[in-house]
Write a structure and sequence with these properties.
The complex is a heterodimer of chains A (about 850) and B (about 350). Chain A is of the alpha+beta class and about 850 residues long. Chain A folds into 6 domains: about 70 residues, Phenylalanyl-tRNA Synthetase, Chain B, domain 1, CATH 3.30.56; about 110 residues, Nucleic acid-binding proteins (OB fold (Dihydrolipoamide Acetyltransferase, E2P)), CATH 2.40.50; about 210 residues, Phenylalanyl-trna Synthetase, Chain B, domain 3 (Phenylalanyl-tRNA Synthetase, Chain B, domain 3); about 70 residues, Phenylalanyl-tRNA Synthetase, Chain B, domain 1 (2-Layer Sandwich); about 220 residues, Bira Bifunctional Protein, Domain 2 (BirA Bifunctional Protein, domain 2, 2-Layer Sandwich), CATH 3.30.930; about 90 residues, Alpha-Beta Plaits. Chain A is built from 21 helices and 39 strands. Chain A has a 7-stranded mixed sheet with strand order 27-30-31-35-34-33-32, with helices on both faces. In chain A, strands 3, 4, 5, 6, 9 and 10 form a 6-stranded antiparallel sheet that branches. The longest helix of chain A is centred in the middle third of the chain and has 17 residues. The radius of gyration of chain A is 41 Å and the shape is elongated. The N and C termini of chain A lie far apart (about 95 Å). Chain B has 2 domains: about 90 residues; about 240 residues, 2-Layer Sandwich (BirA Bifunctional Protein, domain 2), CATH 3.30.930. Chain B is about 40% helix and about 20% strand. In chain B, the strands form 2 sheets. Chain B has a 7-stranded mixed sheet with strand order 1-5-6-10-9-8-7, sandwiched between helices. Chain B has a 3-stranded antiparallel sheet with strand order 2-4-3. Chain B is rod-shaped, with a radius of gyration of 42 Å. Classes of the chains: A alpha+beta (about 850), B alpha+beta (about 350). Chains A and B meet through helix 7, helix 10, helix 12, helix 14 and strand 27 of A and helix 5, strand 1, strand 2, strand 3 and helix 7 of B.
């Protein structure tokens, strides 16, 4: 909302530098985005001139040499505008004047003719957008008069960022009232109640009475018939007719105010509607009444597919959720949005119908969204205006129509109104302000603040009974809203103490899951991985790149209805794609090795939650619409270690990453295995022979492996290895903090090694399982310390060397005691197809 | 004879002293204490001496022998030490070379680091940390936060909607972390002190807006909680994050789910809030204003409590405050990161700057 300072000053001049006022407004709830100066930086050296003579320039066809009276005598000015003519009253920038943009006017020779200034156009002064040459003023002002007396030059304009609750600040008068409450400076009566309506216009408090007095020969009700078919969508529609309207350009002050406010002057009648909107916050629309058949307007829901040609030159197709203004022939406007061109006011218009209506805010908002059309009117209506504002607008418009267009108002309004919203005073309990703010404000001061803001205040014992003016009606509805009003203009920032909540002590802290999450992330950091944060949304083609089958649950995605782009149109169901993508970019940018991990969520349309919030089980009564478990994904490519003076490290491989995974699990006081689980197929994006599920207590919680060569090729990441696990499941098994001490024995262990030949396809873990099972209590650990195949080992076989450790808690073991156990182990191995070697 | 023995002692001691290596010392030992040594001979021949000489010669001889033995012993130790030192001194490596194997150093993302910092500060103030869903029901993101259907405040946030036929109400990507206010209150009665860090989404993308970003929500509800408590809490938090000299500014604002609502700023930590630097130039960080905008806050609107009245939140007995701000914003300010998009580009040359 652009607020020209001098316009606001008609009602309240806080006597503050615009920047100081802006600061004060910011500290009371209305952000001032910036203060701009319209036109030249200073109004000095801009004067009124009278063109006395115009001659063609002797050496330039398109230039004119003008003699201009600027009050201090006659001066020669060379002017390029085609419309310059003797007798015109113009604005002259004298040498020394600075134009908008910073150009300084100097005495100069133009093609050999001395020019002592410049005759200005609307555009050059930033007063308008006219392209047709210099600005020609009406007769009257004497040459030499400072131009600023007639035109808003160097005009400060406040650009307010009005919050959507403050519909009052979408009108100049509302902003003036705000300035009054902030500064304490006086406030003039509102323009609809006898206050000023414009420079040089009579302020006649009685004029409002004309609304119902028989002023014209005709009465509005005789010429106009309004039918509101849906008073939910149109709670109030007021209309007033005018005859003898003289359409033409607006006076300069009115045009200048509109331009300063950011609107384009069109013609006096249209300008009046915009001016009234800017002043009161209530939009209006003017119809050429002669173009409205029988003067009849019907406010109704549009029919599906019904079209209307709007004032912006576009045609809009409406539907039956939208409200339209129709005449007998068809649509004449879109309710709350924009009028139609069918009854547009033109130069030949002599009879006008002025509409000030009230529309259903949410409906306007939806229509605006659905049509992709937003107007100054809809921006106001969508926030829900009070129906009574229509009368304010009609009152101000009537005075302007008489003063500016010489119109004769028809007698009376046609006013079709539904039941007005119920007005009920709000009780502001004594002590409530202090209880919410934590700062005492006396009841007197509370009453004063509310009164200055335009509320009606009555005392009721210690309490206040507050009635709300119509332009604050939908914003201030409860006691708490009054507390805010009082607080915000009580210099809250300076006066409010800074305290901490008192009351019962409460333990703050991370949950066990959150603490362990940090430990898990830090483990990967310690293993040399860089943490990354990938986009939650991804390309739907990613599931194809990862070779996920259509029936794979990860191929069903949460899909956005309005994505920014197709690339970001579905929520990821796996982190791998993000991490591979980041690894790819880093290699392309010259990194020679990449170790990245991400701790982030995946988004599955369905499925069971894991444990706790990291498993997707969030607090609240309603289950979240999707399943969002936290995953941990790591990708490694290139050498295991950075290049070193001691030689190259080997390329990363499955076991390098498995070590990282084991380190992660070990650091959490748990352990995982990698082994086939019946019914769990190989991951399609992994090398089938160099991958497997990550298993915890017999249950898969993720996968690890070398990335499938054809997937790796998609990302230019040959030899990459990766794992991804459901974090909550891993953390759930953590024993951190839950360890119970077990007495360790002083008696020495007995270590024995054995080598066993097995089929090449036999998993080491299976052999270890066999040994452990047969070993009983005395066998405390088994580890694989060598794997060999080749010479001396039969074709299709491999030799596994195992170290077995035996120990008893209460004695030193003798060979005799170990022997039967050892034999049982050998037998078990033989039974499962292993041959003891050597 | 006794005199000769004393001479031997003097000569022997001198030679022990003079020996420079273990080999020389061994030579000395053989010469004075060996089987063929003069002293050995004298002691061996004692029996042949006259009776009156046997006592003094034997006594002196044995004393000298012990003295020489001790001297040699201690000299051996000294020589060994010196030789070890000499060997060690020659056995040198370049200790400035990198350790081996050269282990990669990992890094935690600046957003995670910043999030943890904020969490730790708020934990110290007695808050719990909670997580909430990012794909959320309209109810939690808007309706229960006092944004009724058709309310223009919904337009303030460009929302990503989810295609979803299973739910009657719209499903969306949460536009703020605030939906967890309602979920947390549904789950536990007051007093409630919690923060919610997490990802949020708005349909906006340019140098200063990312369609995905991170926020921290704070909520404190209990008896007698005031706007002044909000100010004190934010001030304590900001001083932990930006330094003990920081001040806070609260500007009244509008949010549908708080009343009164404020925006809060922290005094600029580069110029100290003056808006200009020591050389008189305008402070680029706060653009000469002296204040840096951080987030929104306010007292929980009674209408929001109305949605969780069954869970024990009666607006006449409890009050509360809520606040929210962006994690990226804090990380950018603390670490001088100029472009929001760097956080999601994951270039290791950026990540490696944050250990």
């Amino acid at each position: 909302m652009r607020v020209p300072y001098e316009w606001m000053a008609d009602y309240c001049d806080p006597g503050l530098e615009p920047r100081v006022l802006a600061e004060k407004m910011a500290m009371t709830g209305t952000e001032v985005e910036r203060v701009v100066t319209l036109g030249p930086p200073s109004a000095e050296r801009f004067v009124i001139g009278k063109v006395l003579e115009v001659e063609k320039h002797p050496d330039a066809d398109r230039l004119n040499v003008c003699q201009v009276d600027t009050g201090d005598g006659e001066r020669t000015i060379v002017c390029g505008a085609p419309n310059v003519a003797a007798g015109q009253t113009v604005v002259v920038a004298l040498p020394g004047a600075v134009m908008p943009g910073g150009m300084k006017i100097k005495q100069a020779k133009l093609r050999g003719v001395e020019s002592n200034g410049m005759i200005c156009s609307e555009r050059e002064l930033e007063l308008g957008e006219g392209h047709d040459g210099i600005l020609v003023l009406g007769d009257g002002p004497a040459p030499g008069t400072p131009a600023v007396e007639l035109l808003p030059l160097a005009e400060p304009v406040l650009e307010l960022e009005v919050t959507p609750n403050r519909t009052d600040c979408f009108g100049i008068y509302g902003v003036a009232r705000e300035a009054h409450a902030i500064s304490g400076a006086g406030l003039a009566a509102p323009p609809w109640d006898g206050g000023p309506i414009g420079p040089g216009l009579a302020s006649e408090p009685d004029e409002i009475d004309r609304l119902d007095d028989p002023v014209g020969e005709e009465s509005t009700a005789d010429r106009v018939r309004i039918v509101v078919q849906d008073d939910d969508l149109c709670p109030r529609f007021t209309a007033r007719g005018y005859t003898d309207v003289k359409v033409g350009p607006s006076p300069l002050w009115l045009k200048a105010r509109l331009i300063a406010a950011g609107m384009r002057p069109i013609s006096n009648v249209v300008d009046i509607t915009n001016y009234v909107m800017w002043l009161t916050g209530q939009p209006m629309h003017a119809y050429d009444l002669d173009l409205v058949p029988e003067g009849e307007l019907i406010i109704r829901r549009a029919e599906n597919g019904e079209k209307v040609a709007a004032l912006d030159g576009s045609e809009y197709e409406l539907n039956d959720r939208m409200v339209a203004v129709a005449d007998r022939n068809g649509l004449a406007g879109i309710g709350g949005m924009m009028g139609g061109s069918v009854s547009e006011v033109s130069e030949s218009t002599t009879t006008v119908l002025m509409e000030a209506a009230n529309w259903n805010g949410p409906n306007v908002l939806r229509t605006s969204r659905d049509l992709g059309l937003r107007s100054e009117a809809s921006a106001r209506f969508e926030k829900q205006l009070h129906p009574d504002l229509t009368l304010r607008a009609q009152a101000v418009a009537a005075r302007l129509m008489v003063e500016i267009c010489g119109a004769t108002p028809m007698t009376g309004l046609v006013d079709v109104a539904a039941t007005p919203p119920l007005e009920k005073p709000i009780r502001l309990r004594s002590g409530r302000v202090e209880r919410v703010l934590g700062m005492a404000i006396s009841t007197d001061r509370q009453a004063e603040a509310l009164t200055m803001l335009g509320f009606g205040v009555e005392r009721d014992g210690e309490d206040l009974l507050v009635s709300v003016p119509p332009d604050r009606f939908f914003d201030v509805t409860r006691e708490i809203d009054l507390v805010e009003e009082v607080g915000r203009i009580s210099d809250l920032d300076r006066n409010l103490p800074a305290t901490l909540p008192s009351g019962a002590g409460r333990p703050g802290g991370l949950s066990r899951q959150q603490a362990l999450q940090r430990r898990a992330e830090d483990s990967l950091r310690e293993s040399g991985f860089d943490e990354m944060v990938g986009w939650s949304f991804t390309d739907p083609a990613e599931t194809d790149r990862l070779r996920l089958a259509e029936e794979d649950p990860r191929s069903s995605t949460v899909r956005l209805a309005n994505p920014l782009s197709e690339d970001q149109s579905v929520m990821r169901t796996i982190l791998l794609g993000s991490v591979l993508g980041a690894a790819q970019r880093n290699l392309a940018r010259g990194a020679d090795r990449v170790a990245l991990f991400e701790s982030g969520r995946v988004y599955l349309p369905a499925g069971e939650f894991g444990p706790g919030p990291l498993g997707g089980d969030f607090p609240g009564n309603t289950r979240p619409p999707s399943n969002e478990p936290q995953h941990l994904c790591a990708v490694m490519v290139g050498p295991i270690d950075p290049a070193s003076w001691r030689g190259e490290s080997g390329a990363t491989d499955f076991f390098a990453l498995k070590g990282v995974l084991e380190h992660l699990a070990g650091g959490l006081g748990t352990s995982v295995t990698v082994e086939q689980v019946p019914g769990i197929p190989a991951e399609p994006f992994l090398h089938p022979g160099k991958s497997g599920p990550v298993v915890l207590d017999g249950r898969p919680i993720g996968w690890i492996g070398e990335v499938h060569p054809s997937v790796a090729a998609e990302y230019d990441l040959e030899g990459a290895v990766a794992f991804e696990i459901a974090l909550a499941d891993l953390l759930e098994s953590s024993k951190v903090g839950e360890e119970s001490y077990a007495d360790f024995t002083q008696f020495p262990p007995v270590d024995r090694d054995l080598a066993v030949l097995v089929d090449e396809g036999t998993h080491a873990a299976r052999v270890v399982d066999t040994v452990e099972e047969a070993g009983g209590e005395l066998l405390t650990s088994v580890s694989v310390f060598d794997v060999y195949s080749g010479e001396g080992v039969g074709e299709g076989q491999k030799s596994l060397a195992l170290r077995l450790r035996f120990r008893a808690p209460d004695r030193t073991l003798s060979d005799e005691e170990i022997e039967p156990v050892w034999q049982a182990i050998i037998d078990a191995l033989a039974e499962s197809g292993g041959t003891l070697r050597g | 004879m006794v005199e000769r023995i004393e001479e031997i002692q003097l000569e022997g001691m001198a030679e022990v002293e003079a020996a420079g290596t273990a080999a020389e010392l061994e030579e000395v030992r053989v010469r004075y204490l060996g089987r063929k040594a003069e002293l050995t001979g004298i002691l061996r021949g004692i029996a042949d001496l006259p009776a009156e000489q046997r006592g003094p010669v034997g006594g002196t001889g044995n004393k000298v022998r012990k003295a020489l033995e001790a001297a040699i012993e201690s000299k051996v130790e000294g020589l060994n030490n010196a030789e070890l030192e000499k060997t060690l001194a020659e056995d040198r490596i370049d200790v400035t070379l990198p350790g081996s194997p050269a282990r990669a150093v990992g890094h935690i993302h600046p957003i995670t680091r910043t999030r943890r910092l904020i969490e730790d500060v708020m934990i110290g103030l007695g808050y719990q940390v909670m997580e909430g869903p990012e794909v959320e029901h309209d109810y939690y993101n808007f309706t229960a936060l006092n944004h009724p259907e058709g309310h223009p405040a919904r337009m303030l946030q460009d929302t990503f909607y989810v295609e979803d036929e299973r739910h009657v109400e719209q499903v969306l990507l949460r536009t703020h972390t605030s939906p967890m206010q309602v979920r947390a209150m549904e789950a536990a009665p007051p007093p409630l002190f919690m923060i919610v860090p997490g990802k949020t989404y708005r349909r906006d993308s340019d140098a200063t807006h990312s369609p995905m970003f991170h926020q921290v929500e704070g909520l404190a509800v209990g008896e007698g909680i005031t706007l002044a408590d909000l100010k004190g809490t934010l001030l304590a938090m900001l001083r932990e994050i930006f330094g003990p000299d920081r001040e806070i500014r609260m500007r009244p604002h509008f949010f549908p789910f708080t009343e009164p609502s404020v925006e809060f700023d922290v005094s600029c930590f580069r110029c100290g809030g003056s808006g200009s630097l020591e050389d008189g130039s305008r402070c680029g960080l706060c653009k000469g204003i002296g204040w840096i905008e951080l987030g929104g806050a306010g007292m929980v609107d009674p209408n929001v409590f109305g949605f969780v009245a069954d869970a024990g939140y009666d607006p006449d007995s409890v009050t509360g405050f809520a606040f929210g701000f962006g994690i990226e914003r804090i990380a950018m300010l603390r670490h001088g990161v100029g472009d929001l998009r760097l956080f999601f580009d994951n270039d290791v040359r950026m990540l490696e700057q944050f250990s």
